[in-house]
Amino acid sequence: AQRHILAGLASVVGGLSAPYEKASHVHERPVVNWLWATGCHPFGPFSNTSLISQMLQDVALRNTIYARVDSALHRIRDTSEAVESFACYQS
Predict the structure, then answer these.
(1) Under the phi-then-psi rule, with left for phi > 0, alpha for psi from -120 to 50, and beta for the rest, what region is 25?
(2) CB-side exposure of 15: number of CA atoms within 13 Å?
(3) What are phi and psi of 20, to 5 degrees?
(4) Tell me, what's the pLDDT at 55?
(5) Its pTM surpasses 0.70
(6) What is the rounded distance in angstroms from the CA atom of residue 59 to the CA atom of residue 61?
(7) DSSP string covering 6-63, please?
(8) Cα separation of 41 and 48, whole Å?
(9) 91 by DSSP, 3-state: which?
(10) Distance separating alpha carbons of residues 11 and 13, to the nearest angstrom
């Protein structure tokens, strides 16, 4: 049960997905390849550990960095549009 809890937290908090699932825009649903369901990760019915590997930790860190950069870019874009709108209004 601990493995499933850890996998759920990693998915929600770290943005990790199971190694055997990938999003398919063609099928409009996740596609599963059970060959990737085994291994040293807490995801799936065939995994063998409740630990998160260094690679998955790095992926979670990368996802966090991407989310922060995206948020910063949205703020910059919104601020730039506000300044441009103010400048046009003042002219």
Answers:
(1) alpha
(2) 11
(3) -95, 0
(4) 84
(5) no
(6) 5
(7) HHHHHHHHH----TTEEEETTTTEEEE-GGGSSBSSS-STTB--SS--HHHHHHHHHH
(8) 7
(9) coil
(10) 6
SS3 76: helix
Contact 35, 20 (CB under 8 A): yes
| Angle in degrees, 0-180, between the axes of helices 2-14 and 54-90, rounded to the nearest 10 | 30
Please choose, from the candidates 5, 85, 86, 88, the residue with its C-alpha nearest in 3D space to the C-alpha of residue 42: 5
Which tokens is 30 given? 């996740």
| 86: Cα separation from own chain's centroid | 36
Strands 21-24 and 29-32: antiparallel
Nearest-angstrom CA–CA distance, 18 and 10: 10
Residue 69 structure tokens: 């950069």
pLDDT digits (tens, 9 = 90+) for 60-89: 899 899 999 999 999 999 999 999 999 888
Bridge partners of residue 30, in order along the sequence: 23
